[in-house]
From TrEMBL:
GO annotation, biological process: gibberellic acid mediated signaling pathway
The protein, known as: Gibberellin regulated protein
Taxonomic lineage: Eukaryota, Viridiplantae, Streptophyta, Embryophyta, Tracheophyta
Keyword rRNA-binding: no
Species in which this protein is naturally found: Arabidopsis suecica
Signal peptide (UniProt feature, chain positions): 1-23
Amino acid sequence: MAVFRVLLASLLISLLVLDFVHADMVTSNDAPKIDCNSRCQEQCSLSSRPNLCHRACGTCCARCNCVAPGTSGNYDKCPCYGSLTTHEGRRKCP
């Protein structure tokens, strides 16, 4: 009988946690999509390799729905954008 109660309690806690995670995912996806093309044009305007910069920026913008302001740095304004890395551990986003 005690094993049944432990299993039931574990199941209820698991369902509660999943419900909170699902609710968080639903609310975070409600943000309007930004215009990645224009934001990346600004971000890559001073790059020595604009095509490479624009491609990387577009990928990061699509994943994070934000681009760090300015032409370099400012990753604290968009933490997701600043946290993406390549396989070598370098920052993916320009």
